[in-house]
Design a protein that fits this description.
This protein is an alpha+beta fold and 166 residues long. 39% of the residues lie in helices and 16% in strands. A hairpin with a 7-residue loop joins strand 2 (102-108) and strand 3.
Length: 166
Amino acid sequence: MTDLTRQERKDVLRLVLCGLLVLTPILLYVVWISLLTSCGFGNGFDRGAIYTLKEIHVAQQRFRKEDWDRDGIPDYASLDELGRLQRLEVKFIGDSHAREGYLFEVWRSSAPGHPWWGKASPAVLGTTGDRFFYVNRKGAIYFSYVDLPLPLRPEELGDEVALLGS
């Protein structure tokens, strides 16, 4: 085997360093996503979905208490109403109620003062998320690996739904 010249050794070293510069961010990203997944944050979008549902809950409580629509009825708002009144800290993308890989919806009872539910569904199941999240008027957040219709009745679902953090 022939010895490498000084210039050839420099060239090899440059190639190795360039390879490390390219691969290091990729490896760090993979490790970061693995850590998020192992800590219960799913694919990284779950935390944003949970935060948004908490924001919707707070806005709904204030909408009802302060009668933001000034109709004299202690009711709850649709996502369109909350957006129109600019009462959410989070901003959705367009009219689709999409944010950070999840689609959001609110179910309200037609009877004033009755419960409401919020739901976050992965925009692309398996890619932007694996779990569906639900929030009730008390602020309890549930999750499920299957898409469940609103209104949710956790006491009737058994193992299909779990309270987040339990």
